[in-house]
C-alpha cells in the first residue's frame, strides 16, 4: 500500500454522495463482492466485502485516525489509516465523494486536461465514437411478454426443427445455394445485402436488450457507434452488472448471437422456397455470411465485444482487461527486478498465468489491429500521408505511451530497484539487447530473380507463311547461320511484285520528264515516291530473307511447335521454336530501392530456385540499373502472375511496379543446362553490415518520403 501523506491523520473524512447505492455483486465467486452504483454516470464500481463494511460505517464528520479506530472497534478487524487512505483515493478517483480530497480546483484542472480541441478529439476517438439514439426502456417493458413468447421453450424447439429442415433442403440444392452469392455483385444485390445486415444487427441488439430486461435490468439507451468510422449498433446493458448470477450475465452477453443463429436457421428454411431475387439472396446472406461473421467478431474476447464479457464472467473476473494489464505490468517488474511487491490479485499461480497470457494476446491483437486500420486508411485515401500520420499516432498513443508510463514508474521507484540483485542482470540483458540492435551485423538479403540462358532466340514469323522445309527437331544443336526452317509467303511475293512494278513506273516517269510537262512539275514528288518505294522494297526483301530461318546463336533447339509438318500454314507472330544458348546462364531480378546501399559491387551469393529438386547456384553481381524500371520485363516475377513483386496493371504500359525496383544481372557458372528456359527463384546475397535500428529507420524514412511526395 502507498503510505499516506504527512498530516492526513488529522484530516476529516470526506462525505460520500447521498445518491450512491450499494448492490450485492456476484454471489457465486470466491469471496463476497459488492457494487457501488453511481446513477449520475450510470456506472458500477466493484468493492470487496471489507470495503463494503467500512462504507456501511463511514462518517464524513470524523478525522481519519478517529474513523480508523472506530471502524476497528465496530468491525472487530484492524483498520489502518493506510486502508482508509487507499479507499479514499479510490472513491475520489471515481467521483463518489461529495467534495474532492484535493478540492474543487483539482477537479477543474482535471476537466481542463480532459478538454481537447476537435483535432485532438478526433485523433483519440476516431476508433470508436458512440452516439445514443433512443431510450427503449419503456418500449421493452411493454413488449417483453411478446418477446418471452417468441423465446419460449416451445418456440425454440420449433426454430431448431426448422433449422434442421432448412439445412437438409439446402444440402439437396447445394449448387444453387452456393451460386446465390453471385447476386450480391449487382446493384439490387448490394442493396439487399445492406438491408439484410441492418435487419440482423437490429435484432442482435434487441436480443441483448430483451434478455437484460427479462432479468430486471434497465436499458437506458440504444444507438449507433462508429468503429473506425464504420457504423455499428450498440445497446447499453450496463445494468447487467447488478445481476448476481453468472449464468444470467452470460445469457445477456450471448443473447445477440443466439438471436442471429435463430434468424439464420429460419432464413435457411425460407431460402429453399423463395424464388430467385433480392429476398432469396438476403436469406442466403443471413443464413451464411451474417452469423458466421457475427460469431467471428462478437465471440472474440480480445476486443470489448460479447466474447469479452462472456470470458470475464466465465473466469469470474470483472474488468478483465484492466486487471489483466495491471497483473501483466506487475509480472514484468517482478521478472526484471524481483521487487517482492504484493500481487494486485489474490489468485492461484495458474489463474495469474492465464490472465497474463490473455493480456499479452490482447496487446499483440491490438497492435495488429491498429496497424491494419492504418493500412486500410492508407489505401482508401488519396492523401497517403494521412495513413502514415494515423499509423504514427496509433503507435505513439497505444504502444509508446504505455511503455513510457511504465518506464516512468520504474524511475519513481529506482532506489528500490537498485537494491535488488536481479537489477544487475536485467540491466546487462537490456544493454546487450540494445547493443545487438545498434551494432552493424553482416547479413544476407533476398531478392526475386529468374535464371535464364545468356541468350534466347525466339523464332516467330513476321508474316503469314507456308512451311516448305524443316531442318531441325527438338534437342538438335545448331551453330550461328545454320538453316532451321524454310517458308514461302505468296502474299509477300505478290507485295514484292507490286512494289517492283510501281517502282519501275516511277523510274519511267522520272526518265520522261523532259517530254512531259506534268512529270516535269512533279519532279520532287516522283523522287520522294521512288525513295519510299525503295525503302518499302528493302523491307519486303528483308522479310523475304527471314522466310529462311537461321540460327542467330549457338545452342539447342527447344519447344518446337507441335505437329509441325511441310505445307502447314504459320500465322503472323506464331512461334516455331526456341534456340537456347548453351554457353552459360545469367540471373536477372529486381532489387528494392532500400537495398541499394546494402548491396556492394561484385557481391556474391546464391540463386535458390523455386523448383525443390533443382540445385542452388553460386552467382556474382555483374550490374545494377542506374534508375528504377518503368515496367517489369520479367512477367514471371509480377504479382499478377503469382510473383513476389507488387505491380499495378496498366493497359498502355504493362506491369508497373508499386515500389521502385532496380534490375540487376548476375553471372552464374552452371555445369549442366537448366531443364527450363526460365527458372524462377530468389537470390540470397551478402549485404553490407548494418544495424537493425539503422535499417528500420532507413526504410521508414524511405516510405515517408515516397508516399508524402517530398
Could you provide a short overview of the structure?
This protein has 710 residues and is of the alpha+beta class. The protein contains 21 helices and 22 strands.
Task: Describe the model.
The chain is α+β, with helices and mostly antiparallel strands. It has five domains: 8-115; 119-316, no CATH class; 317-421, no CATH class; 457-574, no CATH class; 584-688, no CATH class. It has 21 helices and 22 strands. The strands form six sheets. The chain has a six-stranded antiparallel barrel. Strand 19 and strand 20 (654-657) form a beta hairpin. The relative contact order is 0.06. The model has no long low-confidence stretch (mean pLDDT 80).
Based on CA inertia axes, which overall geometry fits? elongated
How many helices in DSSP terms?
A: 21
Structural class: alpha+beta
Poorly predicted spans: none
Rg, Cα atoms, Å:
40 Å
Average pLDDT score: 80
Strand order of the largest sheet: 7-16-21-18-17-22
Helix content: 40-55%
Task: Tell me the number of structural domains.
Answer: 5
Strand segment tally: 22
Residues in β-strands, percent:
15-25%
Largest sheet: 6 strands, antiparallel, barrel
Distance between the termini: 54 Å
Reconstruct the topology from this structure.
Blueprint: E1 21-24, E2 33-38, E3 43-48, H1 49-56, H2 64-75, H3 81-94, H4 104-114, H5 118-125, E4 128-134, H6 137-150, H7 153-172, H8 174-179, H9 187-214, E5 222-227, E6 230-235, H10 246-271, H11 278-298, H12 306-315, H13 320-337, H14 349-380, H15 384-412, H16 414-418, H17 422-438, E7 441-453, E8 456-460, E9 465-470, E10 477-478, E11 483-488, H18 490-511, H19 517-521, H20 523-546, E12 548-550, E13 555-558, E14 569-570, E15 575-581, E16 585-592, E17 604-609, E18 617-624, E19 647-650, E20 654-657, E21 661-668, E22 679-690, H21 692-708
Antiparallel strand pairs: 1-2, 2-3, 4-5, 5-6, 7-16, 7-22, 8-15, 9-11, 9-14, 10-13, 11-12, 13-15, 16-21, 17-18, 17-22, 18-21, 19-20
Helix pairs in contact: 6-9, 7-10, 9-10, 9-11, 10-11, 10-12, 13-14, 14-15, 18-20
Amino acid at each position: 500500500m502507498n503510505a499516506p501523506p504527512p498530516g492526513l491523520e488529522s484530516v476529516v473524512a470526506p462525505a460520500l454522495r447521498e445518491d450512491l447505492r450499494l448492490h450485492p455483486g456476484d454471489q457465486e465467486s470466491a469471496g463476497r463482492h459488492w457494487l457501488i452504483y453511481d446513477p449520475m454516470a450510470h456506472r458500477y464500481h466493484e468493492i470487496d466485502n471489507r470495503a463494503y463494511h467500512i462504507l456501511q460505517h463511514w462518517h464524513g464528520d470524523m478525522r481519519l485516525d478517529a474513523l480508523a479506530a472506530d471502524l476497528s472497534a465496530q468491525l472487530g478487524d484492524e483498520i489502518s489509516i493506510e486502508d482508509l487512505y487507499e479507499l479514499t483515493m479510490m472513491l475520489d478517483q471515481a467521483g463518489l465523494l461529495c467534495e474532492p480530497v484535493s478540492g474543487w480546483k483539482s477537479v477543474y484542472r482535471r476537466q481542463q486536461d480532459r478538454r481537447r480541441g476537435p483535432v485532438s478529439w478526433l485523433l483519440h476517438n476516431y476508433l470508436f465514437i458512440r452516439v445514443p439514439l433512443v431510450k427503449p426502456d419503456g418500449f421493452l417493458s411493454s413488449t417483453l411478454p411478446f418477446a418471452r413468447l417468441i423465446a419460449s421453450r416451445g418456440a425454440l424447439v420449433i426454430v431448431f426443427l426448422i433449422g434442421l429442415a432448412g439445412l437438409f433442403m439446402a444440402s439437396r440444392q447445394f449448387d444453387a445455394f452456393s451460386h446465390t452469392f453471385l447476386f450480391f455483385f449487382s446493384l439490387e444485390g448490394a442493396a439487399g445485402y445492406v438491408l439484410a445486415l441492418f435487419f440482423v444487427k437490429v435484432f442482435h441488439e434487441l436480443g441483448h436488450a430483451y434478455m437484460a430486461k427479462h432479468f430486471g435490468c434497465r436499458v437506458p439507451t440504444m444507438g449507433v457507434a462508429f468503429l473506425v468510422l464504420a457504423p455499428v449498433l450498440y445497446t447499453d446493458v450496463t445494468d447487467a452488472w447488478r445481476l448476481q448470477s453468472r449464468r444470467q450475465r452470460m445469457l445477456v452477453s450471448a443473447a445477440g448471437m443466439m438471436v442471429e443463429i435463430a434468424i439464420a436457421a429460419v432464413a435457411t428454411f425460407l431460402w429453399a422456397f423463395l424464388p430467385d431475387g433480392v429476398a432469396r439472396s438476403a436469406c442466403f446472406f443471413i443464413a451464411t455470411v451474417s452469423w458466421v461473421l457475427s460469431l467471428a467478431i462478437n465471440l472474440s474476447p480480445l476486443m470489448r465485444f460479447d466474447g469479452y464479457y462472456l470470458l470475464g464472467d466465465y473466469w469470474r473476473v470483472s474488468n478483465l482487461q484492466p486487471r489483466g494489464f495491471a497483473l501483466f505490468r506487475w509480472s514484468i517488474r517482478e521478472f526484471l527486478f524481483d521487487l517482492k511487491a504484493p500481487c494486485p490479485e489474490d489468485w492461484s499461480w495458474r489463474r495469474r498465468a492465464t490472465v497474463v497470457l490473455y493480456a499479452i494476446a490482447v496487446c499483440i491483437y491490438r497492435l495488429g489491429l491498429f496497424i491494419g486500420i492504418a493500412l486500410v486508411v492508407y489505401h482508401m485515401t488519396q492523401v497517403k500521408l494521412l495513413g502514415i500520420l494515423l499509423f504514427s499516432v496509433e503507435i505513439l498513443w497505444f504502444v509508446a505511451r504505455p511503455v513510457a508510463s511504465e518506464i516512468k514508474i520504474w524511475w519513481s521507484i529506482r532506489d528500490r530497484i537498485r537494491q535488488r540483485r536481479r537489477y544487475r542482470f536485467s540491466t546487462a540483458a537490456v544493454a546487450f539487447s540494445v547493443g545487438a540492435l545498434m551494432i552493424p551485423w553482416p547479413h544476407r538479403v533476398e531478392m526475386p530473380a529468374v535464371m535464364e540462358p545468356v541468350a534466347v532466340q525466339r523464332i516467330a514469323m513476321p508474316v503469314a507463311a507456308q512451311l516448305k522445309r524443316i531442318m531441325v527437331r527438338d534437342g538438335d544443336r545448331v551453330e550461328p547461320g545454320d538453316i532451321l526452317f524454310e517458308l514461302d509467303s505468296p502474299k509477300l511475293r505478290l507485295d514484292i511484285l507490286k512494289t517492283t512494278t510501281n517502282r519501275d513506273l516511277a523510274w519511267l516517269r522520272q526518265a520522261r520528264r523532259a517530254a512531259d510537262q506534268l512529270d516535269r512539275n512533279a519532279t520532287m514528288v516522283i523522287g520522294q515516291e521512288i525513295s519510299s518505294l525503295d525503302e518499302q522494297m528493302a523491307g519486303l526483301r528483308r522479310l523475304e530473307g527471314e522466310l529462311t530461318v537461321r540460327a542467330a546463336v549457338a545452342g539447342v533447339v527447344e519447344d518446337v511447335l507441335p505437329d509441325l509438318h511441310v505445307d502447314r500454314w504459320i500465322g503472323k507472330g506464331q512461334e516455331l521454336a526456341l534456340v537456347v544458348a548453351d554457353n552459360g546462364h545469367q540471373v536477372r531480378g529486381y532489387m528494392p530501392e532500400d537495398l541499394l546501399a546494402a548491396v556492394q559491387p561484385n557481391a556474391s551469393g546464391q540463386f535458390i530456385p523455386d523448383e525443390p529438386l533443382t540445385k542452388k547456384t553460386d552467382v556474382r553481381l555483374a550490374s545494377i540499373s542506374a534508375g528504377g524500371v518503368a515496367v517489369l520485363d520479367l512477367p514471371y516475377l509480377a504479382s499478377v502472375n503469382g510473383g513476389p513483386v507488387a505491380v499495378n496493371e496498366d493497359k498502355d504500359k504493362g506491369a508497373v511496379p508499386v515500389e521502385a525496383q532496380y534490375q540487376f544481372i548476375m553471372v552464374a557458372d552452371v555445369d549442366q543446362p537448366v531443364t527450363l528456359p526460365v527458372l524462377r527463384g530468389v537470390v540470397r546475397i551478402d549485404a553490407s553490415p548494418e544495424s537493425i535500428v539503422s535499417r528500420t529507420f532507413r526504410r521508414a524514412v524511405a516510405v515517408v518520403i515516397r508516399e508524402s511526395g517530398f
